[in-house]
Design a protein that fits this description.
With 364 residues, this protein is an alpha/beta fold. Helix content is 38%, strand content 19%. α2 packs antiparallel against α3, α2 runs parallel beside α4 and α4 runs antiparallel to α5. It is globular.
């Protein structure tokens, strides 16, 4: 997508330097800053500290992190050690585990000399597939948006939650990919952007929409139900960190509340995600681990001070007890459809197997 009119991806591979360059998303929306990860530990830190976030981008970053780790030692022990460290960074996003399993399957059985080159090739393949799949999600989602009724000739009103745009992927995004496709096709569209506390990832959505010229309005999380009740929302589209085999969806905390409001007001609620986010080994949402993050993310608010410098404001006493779950689970019954790179399907095992029939044999 575009930054200041220039097509840009969130991740740049630098195999000659045994490194990757990443947009530091903890600095957005106030500053565009790139960080370099040239060690396994730096790649793991980027994921854990949410310098990179979004399930697809986490998966791609982990794949490259494994390639970086094997540069000077590519033994079986090193491969297992590096994969274990990367797996420990974030528990909920299944793309992380999917990407690492794919890398291990590709590299096992190769000599140490072969592994170094093969790791970079496979990581590149994962990144390029992410771009292609997200672009396809955009086109399938565009078909969904075209079928929605537009009231009084106004722009199509789409609500989203968290950030599932190109910042959460290598390019295009998941939930926002249909929005970009609509905008680029000339279909008038406006996005209601939920701020998504406590990490305020809606600010990232607002930033990238502004960069691409898509009309949008930032709202407080708790304003979403009112806007739906007033008929000012035509559809809700969110991303996912893991979709269970039965169609239950784990996504950024607060997604469940939007799904409930959408159901109560008769507004379609869609989830957009690529194959790597589907977990056919996970039976339902109850089996999805929910990450509990540091309470200081809740106790402190980050922004710029009066001098334009990054600052953190303590909004609660240090000893105030807080709960900070990073995700919640939306039951499949509240999901109007899943938008994947292969098309749109019901949020159910039958629906998913209709798009991914090869998984029927894998489940036997």
């Amino acid at each position: 997508m575009n930054i200041h009119g220039t097509p840009t991806r969130t991740l740049r591979a630098r195999p000659a330097q045994n490194a990757i360059d990443l947009i530091d998303q903890t600095r957005l929306p106030h500053a565009l800053h790139w960080v370099r990860a040239s060690t396994l530990e730096e790649a793991a830190h980027a994921i854990r500290a949410m310098q990179v976030r979004g399930a697809p981008l986490i998966g791609a970053t982990a794949a490259y992190g494994l390639a970086i780790a094997l540069e000077f030692e590519a033994s079986d022990a090193r491969l297992a050690e590096a994969a274990a460290l990367l797996r420990s960074t974030r528990p909920t996003a299944v793309n992380l585990h999917w990407a690492l399993a794919r890398m291990e399957n590709r590299l096992s059985g190769l000599s140490t000399a072969e592994r170094r080159a093969a790791a970079w090739v496979e990581a590149d393949a994962i990144a390029e597939e992410d771009v292609a799949q997200n672009a396809a999600i955009g086109q399938h989602g565009l078909g969904v948006l075209r079928q929605l009724p537009r009231h009084d000739g106004r722009s199509l009103q789409v609500m989203t939650h968290c950030n599932a745009g190109w910042l959460a992927t290598v390019d295009w995004g998941t939930a926002l990919s249909p929005v970009y496709a609509a905008h680029d096709a000339g279909l008038p569209v406006h996005v209601w952007v939920s701020e998504t506390r406590p990490r305020n990832q809606g600010l990232l959505t607002a930033w990238e929409l502004a960069q691409h010229g898509v009309p949008h309005t930032l709202i407080a999380d708790n304003a979403a139900g009112l806007l739906m009740r007033e008929g000012r929302v035509d559809a809700v589209i969110v991303g996912a960190d893991r979709i269970a085999a039965n169609g239950d969806v784990a996504n950024k905390v607060g997604t469940y509340l939007k799904a409930l409001a959408a159901a109560d007001t008769g507004i379609p609620f869609y989830v957009a995600a690529p194959r790597s986010t589907l977990d056919f080994d996970c039976p339902d949402g109850a089996a999805i681990p929910i990450e509990e993050r540091d309470g200081d993310e809740f106790r402190r608010v980050h922004g710029l001070d009066a001098h334009g410098q990054p600052s953190a404001l303590l909004q609660l006493p240090e000893d105030e007890g807080v709960a900070n779950p990073a995700f919640d689970v939306t039951p499949a019954r509240l999901v109007s459809g899943l938008i994947t790179e292969r098309g749109v399907c019901p949020a159910s095992l039958a629906g998913l197997l209709g798009l991914y029939p090869e998984m029927s044999k894998a489940r036997l």
